[in-house]
């Protein structure tokens, strides 16, 4: 077999192993070792594996992963999500479908201090959905809003997916974070417009009772300020330090985790056992992410050795398909994969193949990364996988609410994300202007 044939066989073997249920990290390591052994020999494969372990995980920037994960977990147990929703509820309650729009913008702010979509889905399914249904919104719409806006957790920095992409594409984590701001705001606005259009055109979809007269929980200015200060403080520490150039991403993560710990202690929401559990969960998430990055790096080197990326670049760029034909094909493939496997796994499988093609096409890799993250996040809302949907279902545990209802409620936001993705393709500066300053 030629190196090219071995490379294609390894890719096919990886797909088969994942389909059979093998953990993706182990599958990637296995096919990569097999591929290098076949192209060269076992000794080279072992040496490359050791080099990959050393080169891919010794970077200082990897400390950012546990720090942002810990910060997200701490703010989740500290009821910061509920406070964020309360603030926006107070501001937008008089707007048509105001609670839906409040959920979107509360999710956007919460995303800026967590970076994990599933955390947003869990928190707001318990905070926003009961409040929305109490005020006459349909459960289908309420859960759909939470599912749709939860994707902002992976777009608005800090974002775990942005970190993974930056590592695989060898881009600056700080620049990737900056690149997520414009698209994150765009998605928030598109979601808000979608809610307003639904409230005007499809009232039966949005409301079970459009003439709601249920009283809202009232907050004094002092109470509202008490709720807003922790959120604003964390945003100022993390985003202000990062964008102001005072902190690098790792230092911003450390400052944010320390700030979140102070908030949790002051609110007495952190018993010893809870703190231990959060530390263990942080370690588990971090190790799993770093192991996957190691496996993906080995997979990428094996593919480069086989010549598959070079062959694919030649096929797409020298044929009638062209660079943007490749881009559309790539984004559609990601959306399809999102129906079947989780977000990080998709990136680890496709990016080692797609990045060399994108680079050969002359695409800005930061812009390409933003498009990748938006397309990957679509998978959180599409059946049958739809991780955000299943997270909401498990968090609410309402026998009258089916998974199908949540998928139907989220469908308008899938369309909204497709519109936002098209806008980002047509207007790349939305993604790149801040990162290039």
Automatic annotation (TrEMBL):
The organism's place on the tree of life at top rank: Bacteria
Location (main, coarse): membrane
Record keywords: Cell inner membrane, Cell membrane, Membrane, Transmembrane, Transmembrane helix, Transport
GO cellular component: plasma membrane
GO MF terms held by the record: transmembrane transporter activity
InterPro entries: DctM, TRAP_DctM
Keyword Cell membrane: yes
Pfam families: DctM (PF06808)
Localization terms from the record: Cell inner membrane
Assembly, per entry: The complex comprises the extracytoplasmic solute receptor protein and the two transmembrane proteins.
Protein name: TRAP transporter large permease protein
